[in-house]
Structures are given as C-alpha cells and as structure tokens.
C-alpha cells in the first residue's frame, strides 16, 4: 500500500493528497517540527521536509518527484513544458510564503529594506501577477495537476493570511470556482 507522509496544513502535501483522492493509499499525518514524528522523518528523509512517499520501501522525497513517480506508476500522462513552468511559478511563490511563515513564527521582523525579505516579497508579487495573467489569458486548464497545485497554494495563503489576493481577481475567482470539490473539502487544512 502506498504511504504518504505529510501534515494537513502543508500545501505541498495537499496537492498530492488531492491527486491520490481516488487511489488506495494510507495517509500518515505528522508533527514535523518536534517529537517522535521528527525522528521518523530524520530516519527516512534527511531533508526533513514533507511530503514523502513510501511505496513498498521505495522512498521518494519532494512533491515534484512524487508527482513524477505517481505519473509513471498510474500512467497519468506527463506535463507539457508550459505546465512544468507553471509548477515552477507555483512552487517558487509557495516556497517564498513558507519562508514568510517561518519568519513570522521565529518572531523575526521582516524588514523590507533587508535583501532577504525584499527579494522574497518581490518574488511573491511578480509570480502572483504572472499567474493572474496566465489565468486571464486561459493558460490554465480545468482541474489537472497544475490547477490542483495552484488551488492548494492559494487556499493555504488565504488560510495563513500570508498575502492578500485583493489585487488578483482571476486568482480569487479560480479559488472560489474549485472550493466546493469533494477532494478539496476533504483536505481542508482548517478541519
Ligand atoms: N520542494 C518541496 C517543498 C516541501 C516543503 O517545503 N514542505 C514544508 C511544509 S509546507 C516543510 O516540510 N517544511 C519543513 C521545513 O522547512 O523545515 C516539495 O515540493 O515537496
């Protein structure tokens, strides 16, 4: 049985949970920052990040590689280069937002004059603008993997109140459109 290690709040985990919604698998919810779960992670995955997949002892790190593994296993069909670039856009804003959350949780003041914070903030804005433009010009499809990743990132940014989507009507409309899907509801981090 496929085992997916993750946490209910992680947007990188949620995309894989939604992808696996109709496939037999076991989901293992972890507390990754301390305690026994961190020890499990240390033994299996030195990056200490989730998601992580275990398929009968074959361990796979990183959602992007997990997606590639599942694509081969279930013959899901691969992504175009344009879709790969969409994933890179989504991953980069997602990483910058994770950085922002960890900064807040570390009680570090995110001084916009400092290079590290200025670059992250600029990236969040340039990527959200690019995603807004792509949605507006119809470059995203219905509900394939790039759309699942986009939804998971947006919903997490809203849930954690990390960045307002006020300036991005197409992103807000996209979020609202997919909000009531069963697999989206079943993986809501607010539950
Ligand atoms: N590139 C990785 C990113 C995964 C990631 O950043 N996961 C976060 C949770 S949302 C994590 O495990 N963070 C732990 C840490 O930064 O120590 C992927 O796509 O799987």
From TrEMBL:
It comes from the Bacteria. Signal peptide: none annotated. InterPro entries: Glutathione-S-Trfase_C_sf, Glutathione_S-Trfase_N, GST_Omega/HSP26, Thioredoxin-like_sf. Gene3D superfamilies: 1.20.1050.10, Glutaredoxin. Transmembrane segments: none annotated. Residues 1-78 form the GST N-terminal domain. This is GST N-terminal domain-containing protein.
